[in-house]
């Protein structure tokens, strides 16, 4: 079928098939393996969603319990990886810490006959929070934390417990769990496509995930939530925000957390995360940040017809969960690793090398001058 409109950046180009998720024909919705994102965010835990993505079905209660126990058993880090994390600079970007941790683990527990793709997917999903927070605490206070946290059986619970050193409330666990569900999978986004390109060369699992992390890191993709938070923090009232955003739009600056390549009439995940952010703001007694966020949302819609994407209110929610801004994008890695892994499995199941062609815009063939003639 011929492609319509401006296809630069591969916009609107169909680049393959997937049974994992779709934004629907109109680009208005999101389903993971046919289940609506609203139903999943409300009724399924992150672990159920990971199972659905990796194994193709929703787990029964027994399967889920077994799967959670498996992930729990995979949280500990090898001593050599702890040493690597200790050697990284305290000033490192934490996304780079996960990228390096993933690559390093690939040298210690390589893919092979005794370690298949599902085993590596589960290992990475279970150990990314451990890597991140081991590095975080070691460089912040010199503490070598125990990462297994048996009393905190879900990824959301473990993450908040390891971060704070105390048990999180059930509201906080539920909010982070839903945020992880919302971030888990999103069709052929830039980082997922990167993973598929890498495994299409028959490269290994860790290389694909490492590449995916690199692609996610940029502010036009996974880094937008941190950009949104830094923007929100610049204002102390909705009126100040309105004036500031107007100035930015006049200068044609991009507002992080708004707009989307696919959703031009609103991101279906945004109202879900907004409602969670609102509950968390109310619990914290906030009268500033949430109203500022809403004013920015109103302005972007009226001035530019732009809607918030998942990142905008994720930033607000994470802020009220007490998560430092520089850990927002690593959290995205922790969740999206599940979608990447599922796409890697799917690509491998029906692989063909991904190698598009380019429209050449360089010089016509010309004579080659020898070095002394230039
Ligand atoms: C997500 C994004 C990269 C999509 O890009 P895209 O599909 O290539 O859309 P375009 O950049 O072509 O945007 C179309 C128009 O809307 C404007 N626009 C898009 N997002 C904007 C934003 N966040 N702030 C201000 N203007 C924006 C563009 O400047 C462009 O205006 P123009 O036609 O006057 O030049 C883009 O919306 C963006 O940069 N958003 C901010 C980063 C972000 O939140 N990323 C997370 C995505 S989940």
Automatic annotation (TrEMBL):
GO terms for molecular function: 2-methylcitrate synthase activity; citrate synthase activity. It comes from the Bacteria. Pathway: Carbohydrate metabolism; tricarboxylic acid cycle; isocitrate from oxaloacetate: step 1/2. It comes from Methylacidimicrobium cyclopophantes. This is Citrate synthase. Keywords: Acyltransferase, Transferase, Tricarboxylic acid cycle. The lineage of its organism: Bacteria, Pseudomonadati, Verrucomicrobiota, Methylacidimicrobium. One of its GO terms (cellular component) is cytoplasm. GO terms for biological process: carbohydrate metabolic process; propionate metabolic process, methylcitrate cycle; tricarboxylic acid cycle. It holds the Pfam family Citrate_synt. SUPFAM superfamilies: Citrate synthase (SSF48256). It catalyses: oxaloacetate + acetyl-CoA + H2O = citrate + CoA + H(+); propanoyl-CoA + oxaloacetate + H2O = (2S,3S)-2-methylcitrate + CoA + H(+). The active site is at 260, 311. Belongs to the citrate synthase family.
């Amino acid at each position: 079928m011929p492609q319509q409109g401006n296809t630069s950046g591969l916009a609107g180009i169909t680049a393959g098939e997937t049974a994992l998720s779709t934004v629907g024909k109109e680009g208005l919705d999101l389903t993971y393996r046919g289940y609506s994102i609203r139903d999943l965010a409300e009724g399924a835990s992150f672990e159920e969603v990971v199972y659905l993505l990796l194994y193709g079905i929703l787990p029964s209660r027994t399967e889920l319990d077994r799967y959670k126990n498996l992930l729990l058993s995979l949280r500990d880090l090898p001593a050599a990886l702890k040493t690597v994390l200790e050697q990284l600079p305290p000033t490192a970007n934490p996304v780079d810490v996960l990228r390096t941790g993933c690559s390093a683990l690939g040298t210690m527990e390589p893919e092979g006959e005794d370690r298949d793709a599902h085993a590596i997917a589960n290992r990475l999903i279970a150990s990314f929070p451990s890597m991140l927070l081991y590095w975080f605490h070691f460089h912040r206070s010199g503490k070598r934390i125990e990462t297994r946290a048996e009393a905190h059986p879900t990824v959301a619970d473990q993450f908040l417990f390891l971060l704070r050193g105390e048990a999180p409330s059930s509201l906080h666990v539920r909010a982070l769990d839903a945020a992880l569900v919302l971030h888990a999978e999103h069709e052929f986004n830039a980082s997922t496509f990167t993973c598929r390109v890498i495994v299409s060369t028959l490269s290994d699992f860790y290389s694909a995930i490492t590449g995916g992390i690199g692609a996610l890191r940029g502010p036009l993709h996974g880094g937008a939530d941190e950009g949104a938070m830094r923007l929100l923090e610049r204002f102390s009232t909705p009126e100040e925000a309105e004036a500031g955003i107007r100035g930015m739009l006049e200068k044609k600056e991009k507002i992080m957390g708004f707009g989307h390549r696919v959703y031009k009439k609103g991101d279906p995940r945004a109202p879900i995360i907004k409602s969670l952010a609102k509950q968390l703001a109310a619990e914290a007694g906030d009268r500033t940040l949430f109203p500022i966020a809403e004013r920015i949302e109103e302005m972007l819609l009226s001035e530019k017809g732009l809607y918030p994407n998942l990142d905008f209110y994720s930033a607000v929610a994470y802020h009220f969960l007490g998560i430092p801004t520089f850990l927002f994008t690593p959290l995205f890695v922790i969740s999206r690793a599940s979608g990447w892994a599922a796409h890697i499995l799917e690509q491998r199941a029906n692989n063909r090398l991904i190698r598009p062609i380019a429209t050449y815009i360089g010089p016509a063939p010309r004579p080659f001058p020898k070095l002394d003639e230039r």
